[in-house]
Design a protein that fits this description.
single chain; alpha+beta; 7-stranded antiparallel sheet; 35% helix; Chitinase A, domain 3
């Protein structure tokens, strides 16, 4: 679910204990660069344990831990949204490196290839952000015309399905909710219902749109909320499920405030 702030340097998956609740982490620029450099080193040196399309025997301990390492590197690549890799070239690079053979590309050629790779990826993401922004604006424009939909000045839209009753929560309060988050095409990216229990979190730890919606709700209330990207995850998106500049829809049931333990 929506995490905090617009000035995120990096999104880190956004997982709370049981859901997409917290939003993005906010590491400082130096830490981000260090992590990126470490990844580039790994990517350059370990272009290797790739799936090459054939079955292998996994009987010995060495075979098993080698396979496990390969899976970990594959997971790392997917986490960085690196999905299109030539498996043969990938495996050859690792094999050459482990055998201490002379690399088939010079250092300059490798650096140039990686620079182009990241430049192309950045351009593709920028184009996706542009497309998402336009699609989201059109979706919100049409949604705002529906009977019963309220549109706030900041662009947040909501429809009250069930009003609830009682006090509104404060912006820093801990609350309990059931929710389902969707992209505008209907894809569910997170849901407390799928986990079979409501979720608890502090309102000061979620994205602005989610916080504002819940502070306007009353216990027992059920709303459908549509958030523009600037009130959700913005240009950064959130992990692999929420792209840049995505407009999000949430079905929210505000169960009520969570009582804080009193000091003895």
């Amino acid at each position: 679910m929506p995490g905090s702030g617009k000035n995120r340097e990096m999104d880190c998956g956004i997982r709370h204990n049981d859901g997409l609740i917290r939003g993005s982490l906010n590491p400082n620029r130096k830490k981000f660069k260090t992590m990126k450099n470490k990844f580039l080193i790994l990517f350059s040196l370990l272009l290797c344990f790739a799936q090459t399309g054939f079955a292998v025997e996994l009987n010995t301990h060495k075979q098993k831990y080698s396979y496990a390492i390969g899976l970990q590197i594959g997971q790392m690549l997917i986490a960085q949204d690196i999905r299109e890799v030539d498996a043969d070239a990938f495996a050859a690079a690792v094999s050459d490196y482990l055998a201490k053979k002379q690399p088939q590309l010079s250092q300059e050629e490798m650096q140039a290839a990686l620079r182009k790779f990241y430049a192309d990826a950045k351009a593709a993401r920028a184009e996706l952000a542009k497309e998402n922004l336009a699609k989201g604006a059109k979706y919100r424009e049409e949604h705002a015309k529906k009977p019963g939909v309220t549109v706030l000045k900041n662009g947040l839209q909501y429809e009250v399905m069930s009003p609830g009753n009682g006090a509104h929560p404060k912006a820093d309060q801990r609350v309990e909710v059931h929710y389902t988050g969707k992209l505008i095409d209907g894809t569910v990216f997170d849901s407390s219902h799928s986990r079979g229990k409501p979720t608890q979190f502090s309102l000061n730890g979620v994205v602005p749109g989610f916080r504002e919606a819940i502070t306007r709700m009353q216990p027992g209330g059920k709303w459908v909320v549509v958030m523009p990207p600037e009130l959700a995850y913005g240009e950064k998106g959130a992990g692999k499920k929420i792209g840049p500049n995505e407009t999000l829809t949430f079905e929210i049931e505000y169960i009520g405030p969570v009582a804080t333990a009193q000091p003895k």
